[in-house]
Every structure is written in structure tokens, then in C-alpha cells.
Amino acid sequence: MNLSIPALTRFLIREATVEDQHELASLFHFESYVHRHLDWRTPLDWINHPPFLVAEQKGRLIGALASPVDTPGIAWIQVFAVRSNSRLDAVWSALWKQTLSFHKEYSTRQIAAIPSQPWFGKLLTDSHFTHSHDVVTLIWEGQPLTPPKETADVAIREMHTADLKGVLVVDQESFEPLWQQSEAALLIALKQACIATVAEKAGRIIGYQISTCGHLGGHLARLAVVPDQRGRHIGEALVFDLLSKFIDRSVNRVTVNTQHHNTVSLRLYEKLGFRRTGETFHVFTFTP
């Protein structure tokens, strides 16, 4: 894709290539206007996963926008960046116009973003994105744990690569399309996890959790239980087992995110001693 933009703006829009990696890395690391989606992959990992478009002016890269489709019909804006000496609105408009054309051609059902800075939220609003819901953060800081009711026919064990197809089924049955993960994303998540477990019943994976570790503590990144097994304290058992493992590692600070309207998840986490931090992230969506 190599598209001329009106002379007033004097730049070209084209697909990013591996040859752009150095300039893109500089753009993402040193410029002020940079949006990065919180994801298992880095922005550069999305090169060769269209649409990943760049804006070029006089042979110099001045902006980039990537929103690849990783699960059927769903695209997240993984990165948007503009050089500080360029017109933010003009670069966004040109990149967004061609990005939207791509998604319409390929029948993308929904495009989403979670802006962490007001300037990006304004660009989204001005481009007719809708603030659909919020994601909230909860934290556990070593509160005493009460063991959940026993589920004698369910075993919790370490997750292995061979489990991913079963984990993918759980993921697809548990989450609405916007929040589902691809098998490739789950593999990357597993590789980055410090604790990943599955709940298994009669050889069938019926639940899982994936958590990461950092210098500030642990983070429960993913938790799911298949609908036909809910109400049996399996999610509670997975989180209890996870927190017990963190305690064994002397980790007494664990965070988790969930949708503000997911009352089932909120009750589960609060029952186990998590409390809301007050941190909220707005989710914006657009239907092409």
C-alpha cells in the first residue's frame, strides 16, 4: 500500500516493513505522542501483521498506526505515534482513514482502544469512537486467605504448551469476542508467565489463569472458567491456588483488572481480599 495524501500535508501513507524497525523504535521510545496497547507483544512485533501503516514525509517516518486483526473480526489499536514536530491531528486523520478502509474491506466487526492519555482519547472521540465501558483495577496485599469449598473432581495443575488448544476453547467460551485471545497470544502469554495453571476435570480443561511477576509484585492477567462449570468455586480455587503460590514466593502484592460491570468477577476478587484501587481505564470502540 502506497497512497498519496493531499499536498497540504505532504506525506505518504504506506505499510510498515522490517526496514522501518530502527525508525519506529526511535519513534515509540523518544516521542511524546505515543499510545501503546497493553499487550503480550511489543509494537514492533506487529510488523507484517496488517494494517500497520506509517506516515512518511520527505523520506522520514513521522507517524505510525497499527491495528491488526488477531482474533476474527476484532482489532485493537496496538500503537499510534507521531513525531512532536508534526501535526498530530493531520497525521492521525491520514493514517486512520487508510486503516478504516482496510478494516471495511476485510469486514472487521469492531475496532477498540484503551487510551491512557487525554490527547488520544480526544482523537478517538473526534473520530466517532464510543466510550463503551471501563476497566477497573483491584489489588490484594497479603490479606488472609480462606480456602474455597473443595471440588474433589477438579485438579489444579501447571499449564503446559500442550494445554493451549484446551485453554483456547475455555477462552472462547468464556469471553465476548472483544476480549478473546488467539492461540498465538496465549502461547506468548504462557512464555511470559511466572505462574500459569489450569483446572482439569476428567481430562477436560475447564478453567485457567495466567499471571506475571514484576518488581512491584504479581499481576493476574487472565482468568476464565467455562460457563457450564461456573458456580462450583473453580475460579475461586484457581485464584486461591495462585495467591498461595505468590505467598510461597514472598509476593504479597497482586493486581488484577476486570470490566466495571462484571459483577461476578468483582464479587470473586473482593471475596478473596482484593480491593478496588480507584484506577480506571476507558474502553473505546468503533464499528466500521
General description of the model:
The chain has 288 residues and is an alpha+beta fold. It folds into 2 domains: 127 residues, Gcn5-related N-acetyltransferase (GNAT) (Aminopeptidase); 146 residues, Gcn5-related N-acetyltransferase (GNAT) (Aminopeptidase), CATH 3.40.630. The protein is built from 7 helices and 16 strands. The strands form 2 sheets. A 10-stranded mixed sheet has the order 6-7-9-16-10-15-14-13-12-11, sandwiched between helices. Strands 1-2-4-5-8-3 form a 6-stranded antiparallel sheet, with helices on both faces. A hairpin with a 2-residue loop joins strand 12 and strand 13. The protein is elongated, with a radius of gyration of 21 Å. The N terminus is likely disordered.
Secondary structure: elements and pairs:
Layout: E1 2-4, E2 12-15, H1 21-30, E3 33-36, E4 52-57, E5 60-66, E6 69-71, E7 74-76, E8 79-82, H2 88-105, E9 110-113, H3 118-126, E10 130-140, E11 155-158, H4 164-174, H5 183-192, E12 195-201, E13 204-214, E14 217-225, H6 234-248, E15 254-259, H7 263-271, E16 275-286
Parallel strand pairs: 7-9, 14-15
Antiparallel strand pairs: 1-2, 2-4, 3-8, 4-5, 5-8, 6-7, 9-16, 10-15, 10-16, 11-12, 12-13, 13-14
